[in-house]
Amino acid sequence: xxxxxxxxxxxxxxxxxxxxxxxxxxxxxxxxxxxxxxxxxxxxxxxxxxxxxxxxxxxxxxxxxxxxxxxxxxxxxxxxxxxxxxxxxxxxxxxxxxxxxxxxxxxxxxxxxxxxxxxxxxxxxxxxxxxxxxxxxxxxxxxxxxxxxxxxxxxxxxxxxxxxxxxxxxxxxxxxxxxxx
Length: 181
Description:
1 helix; five-stranded antiparallel β-sheet; elongated; mainly beta
């Protein structure tokens, strides 16, 4: 058949909703109800809040009440959120034998911003700081609590003088089996 371009009018448009029909357990988040405009319902900001395979979405008329059958998407996979670490600040000069702090944020690379609570809700991290071509002492292993995105090493120490040292921070999550740097 032909596409129907007029479903209701601007003041009282038909509405379409989207839900997860099948998959490993995630939910559709964002604005899950959209008006039909010129026969098309556009969902600008939906996402699925859990990575996994074999998702199928279901689209249905949510207003007005009708007997129109729902439509299903093709099966698709949702990859994990691309996360990384972004150092909050770094001192170029670090005095020998004086403690210093290194802090970073878990970074949502898709949005280019600090990862929010919804992204980190089920993820905790075990983090390790090291010094390339040198020795780093102090508390070099920390645990970042589930839901927290602040990675803070607050008593690091470089005992040997040197130049061009690079501090590396790696964080691993057992919840996602992922390592970020």
